[in-house]
Design a protein that fits this description.
There is one protein chain. By secondary structure, this protein is of the alpha/beta class. The chain is built from 13 helices and 17 strands. The strands form 3 sheets. Strands 8-9-11-12-13-14-15-16 form an 8-stranded mixed β-barrel. Strands 2-3-1-6-7 form a 5-stranded mixed sheet. The two termini are 42 Å apart.
Amino acid sequence: MANPGNSVVGLVELAEHYDVADLHASASFNVMRDAFHDRLKSWIRPRDQWRSINHNRACVILQDIGSEGELELAAAKLGRVFREPHLYRGRPMHLHVTAGFAELGGGNQNMTLAMRQAAIALNQAKNSSRLYEVFSPGNTRNPDAEAILLRAMDEAMETGEFNLYYQPQVHAGYNSLVGAEALLRWHRPNGEIIAPDSFIDVAERHDIIRPLTWWVIKSAVARLATWPEQLSIAVNVSPVLLLRDDIQSVVHDALDIFAVSAERLNLEVTEKIMVDNQEVVLSQLHDLRERGVKISIDDFGTGFSSLAYFRDLPVDEIKIDQCFVRNMLTSEKDHAIVKAVIDLAHNFSMRVVAEGVETLEIAERLSQMRCDVLQGYYFDRPLQVEHFEQQYKL
């Protein structure tokens, strides 16, 4: 979203509800405002700027934000800074904040535009109950167009237009098939095949993400029941679904109905799960893992990658993001990141999967580095199920 050296404008808002019953309105107003401002000061770095807009909203300018990962780091720190309640006369006052961010281009004339875009992102975050959102033109989709897309997805669910493709996952040492990742594709009646990038964000903003994901889980488990016992299937799960208890019953019912061992199902989640509602998410992951389901962190390295979170996450597997893998033979930094992740994961007794393996040279280097599983176009693209099973004699 940003280039090295760019700045990001943020609007941070404190929710206007107070928890201390014996505070008068004026006292509550002053105490919360001061606590809000004090924590903002502890959040920003010396080179950043901030100013109060009113008692519960502030504008911040974060300097030198070069990637979405760096912004996620900043947002994760914001959540940590406001996590603990403020104690007033021995009683807790909870500080609930929400933020919206937008990239600030060159020239003062762009400040007004960036503020407007940050306000749009802030409203999106409040509507989605997320800690923060980043402004993107794609997120300001025409409401009519979004409604049309939602209706099309509903119809696609009813008429069976969604399909699962399977991309093989290969043992790095033996080059043998160990499983596959199930990837969603939308087959339109006109013959067009649509990847999730074009519709999953809209699905996540609406409740259709639930039935869509439940269908994916049940379909993947049903397919897994027909495969040899040594093979597994990985399924991506949206972070928003880990805030609800019904994921437990869906997963458990699917495994029971099709008589599939829980350890053969791998649920892939991203690092962003740790930005919001950490206690709920961790509880869900612990419960799934206690049942035997494997948990994998997808796109590892592109989020905040805090070692504290890494230590606490109940996961079995780390998937190194393909942006590091693809360039690891030409970039010393990417090579060092891949090696560091492999070593760290193994020290925590986690398996490592490398995505984006596109050449024999990269596959061999990863094998030398003791990576466990490889996935990428060097082995195969995502295949329709009949082609996958024919190719791998299943």
